[in-house]
């Protein structure tokens, strides 16, 4: 046993405080697999936890970080052995279980997914929870029967992590992607990812009509609130919207009209407790349906000691695409 670097969140009189410090390996929580963490990422949820802007953390002290990729060091779980390359997303990491902004992590073996050979540990975190969530949303739309022939697909928060990966994957699959963003300066970036059209988020921020002119067969929304309500009201007959985020708020000021007059479906996407078989499918599809060159365009890299400083930027909408965090 020894110590390792980690971003630790502690409760303070004024709320919480996060700092890079030394953590004792003996204080890691129960688990049957110990992983040498090589890469993590900065997600919107991580930004909330590190800054204390929302009560993400449920126990203290906490190591922040909701996902990692790395190499198994020790295992008493029958499925894993030293040297295996694995990825882990969710399961309460960074909330109730010590998380991934650390050089070591100890977790339950049933939380892990073996990395496809085509995906490195760095690329796994370039995808991260945001990209994995985007793939879950694509799978949900496909299961509902939404295909490229069905019509356009709207992607909100398109310049963010979920939106960037969703745009890249959907366009590679042949969908006509309408990317919505509050940063029209990113239009060329989004078209480079494959967006056929880029619209200002103001088009989805106005008063919500029970039913508006139908514009798309489906959508992937990471914003919530008025944006999601407008997406629903503008969906075509039999369309579906996959909801996976709340950057704009947790409320949903909608009506039953889209559901009972157009047969629109609202598909909830949960990445935290998603069953392992679906996780495996998502990661397998990401290995084939996400263009590696697009992933490179989406991503930039920071070190562990930069996470606290970058956390506020992701909440302010100042981050484009994905941030990977180099751990060692």
Any overview of this molecule?
There is one protein chain. This protein folds into two domains: 3-115 and 291-326, Quinone Oxidoreductase, Chain A, domain 1 (Alpha-Beta Complex); 131-268, Rossmann fold (3-Layer(aba) Sandwich). Strands 3, 5, 6, 7, 8, 15 and 16 form a seven-stranded mixed β-sheet that branches. Strands 11-10-9-12-13-14 form a six-stranded parallel β-sheet, with helices on both faces. The protein has helices at residues 44-51, 121-144, 161-172, 187-193, 225-233, 257-261, 276-289, 292-298, 307-315, and strands spanning 3-12, 15-24, 33-41, 62-63, 67-75, 85-89, 104-107, 113-114, 153-155, 177-181, 197-200, 216-221, 235-243, 265-268, 299-303, 322-326. The chain is of the alpha/beta class.
